[in-house]
Amino acid sequence: MNHDMYVISLVTTGEEGYPQDEVVEVAICGLDTERMDIESVYSSTIFIPAERWTDERRRYVMEHHGLGQEELVEGREVEKVAQEVKGVLQGQVVTSFNVKSDFFGHLLYEPWDLTGEASIAPSINLRSAEACRIPLELRDGGKMLTLTYEAMFPYDPAQVDGGHRALDDALRASTILLELRRAGRY
To answer: What predicted TM-score, i.e. pTM, was given to this entire model?
Structure first.
C-alpha cells in the first residue's frame, strides 16, 4: 500500500504529559487517502521499570486501556521503540486524534522528539467535532475519540470491538480521518 499519511496513537500512564507521564504503548496506521485504505504499520508496548510504576499509574492504564502489568513487563526499551517510530514517520505527514496531547504532551520530547522529523497535520478531533455534533460537556479528552467514532460509525467498520489499546485507537482515528476526507472536511 502507498501511504501518504500516518495516524499515531499512544497509551500513556496518565493525562498530564511529559515529564509526569510516560508512553507505555504506541501504534501507527498508514493511510492511502486516495484509495481510502488503512493499514496497521507499527505497534509496540514499552517496558517501564517497576520503581516508576505507582498504584495510580497502574490503575489509569488498566481502567482506560485494559493494559495489565503482564503485557507491560514484556514491553520493549523506550529508546528502541522511539527509534523505530522515527524510522516509520521520518519525512512523512502524521497526525493523531489529539495532536496537542500526543505530540505536545510526549512526541516532541526525548526520546521520541519528532521535531523536524515529520510534518504534523491538524488534529483529527478539531475537524470531527462539527461532523458528529457531540455536546461540549461530553467532550472529555479520554472519551472523545470513542464518542466521535461511535457517533460517526455505529457499525464499527474498524472492527475494534470496544478495545482501547493504542492500535484500536489508531484504527478508530484513521477511520474517522478517512470519512472526514471523503466528506471534504479534512
So the answer is: 0.93
Q: Which of 65, 61, 185 is nearest to 123 (CA)?
A: 185
180, containing H or E segment = helix 166-182
Amino acid identity at 109: Y
List the Cα angle 40/41/43 in 5-degree steps: 85
Position of cell 505536545? 104
Q: Are residues 11 and 27 in contact, defined by beta-carbon separation less than 8 angstroms?
A: no
Distance between CA 96 and CA 104 in Å, rounded?
11
Residue 69 · residue 58 · CB < 8 Å:
yes
Taking only the tens place, the pLDDT of each residue in 152-184 is: 998 999 999 888 899 999 999 999 999 999 999
CATH of the domain at 57: 3.30.420.10
> 1 CB contacts (<8 Å, ≥6 apart)?
30, 32, 35, 37, 39
Q: Is pLDDT larger for residue 66 or for residue 76?
A: 76
Query: Count of domains in the chain?
Result: 1
Query: Which 3 state secondary structure label does DSSP give 147?
Result: helix
Backbone dihedral angles phi then psi of residue 94, each to the nearest 5 degrees: -135, 150
84 φ/ψ angles, rounded to the nearest 5 degrees: -70, -40
Pairing mode, strands 5-12 and 37-45: unpaired
Give the residue numbers spanning the domain of 104. 5-182
